[in-house]
Specification:
The chain is of the alpha+beta class. The chain is built from six helices and five strands, in the order αααββαααβββ. The chain has a five-stranded antiparallel sheet. A hairpin with a 4-residue loop joins strand 1 and strand 2 (about 120). Helix 1 (about 1-25) packs antiparallel against helix 2. The longest helix is centred in the middle third of the chain and has 37 residues, at about 70-105. The chain is rod-shaped and about 100 Å long. The termini are far apart.
């Protein structure tokens, strides 16, 4: 990139030198300098416009061709876009695997923020706790599952403790719940039919 700036600097110096040379031949140095600098400014603004249009529509297009520093800018932005797309695909794959794993688990899994707001749950937890996507995302689990003992259990916040109570949607099932803190102020509720 530094080399590209040096090339651009010398390109401008070369253009100014040519302007001075032709201007001195025709005895109009100022006009030649204005024409050269005006042409350079038009080229510069044209590339800025192409950059702006490409950034708005670049999801599926190659960068516009150009010269000098503009070629470097377009190429680097295009590479950055491709790296970002690759990372996004990887994140989607990881999330897909995470969901597959949690769906295969016999346990009920609910991912919550530290304050007990629900972020995600597996299908079995959704059915047995009666959670509805997307309406219940961001709601406190203790507001969605009405059980005073569960509320007290949350308040204690002891990750080594288990709480047992009848399943909210199936009173014949008795479930055991444990909350494990993890990550950045998050917790994982794991429930099991006992």
């Amino acid at each position: 990139m530094i080399n590209s700036w040096a090339e651009e600097f010398w390109r401008v110096i070369g253009l100014l030198g040519l302007a001075v040379l032709f201007g001195s031949i025709f005895d109009h140095i100022a006009i030649a300098l204005v024409l050269v600098l005006g042409g350079y400014l038009i080229w510069y603004l044209r590339n800025l416009r192409r950059l702006e249009v490409w950034l708005r529509n670049r999801r599926s297009s190659l960068p516009p061709p150009s010269l000098g520093i503009w070629e470097v800018i377009f190429t680097e932005l295009y590479r950055s876009q491709k790296r970002h797309q690759k990372r996004q695909r990887r994140i989607v794959q990881l999330l897909s695997r995470f969901r597959e794993v949690t769906e295969a688990m016999p346990d009920w899994v609910v991912v919550m923020r530290a304050d007990g707001e629900v972020e995600w749950w597996n299908e079995i937890a959704g059915r047995l706790f009666g959670l509805n996507y997307p309406a219940d995302v961001g709601q406190r689990l203790t507001n969605l599952v009405r059980n005073p003992g569960l509320h007290e259990f949350f308040q204690r916040g002891d990750s080594n403790e288990f709480y047992h109570f009848p399943a909210p949607r199936d009173q014949e099932k008795n479930i055991s719940v444990r909350i494990t803190p993890y990550g950045n102020d998050q917790s994982l509720l794991i429930a099991r039919d006992v």
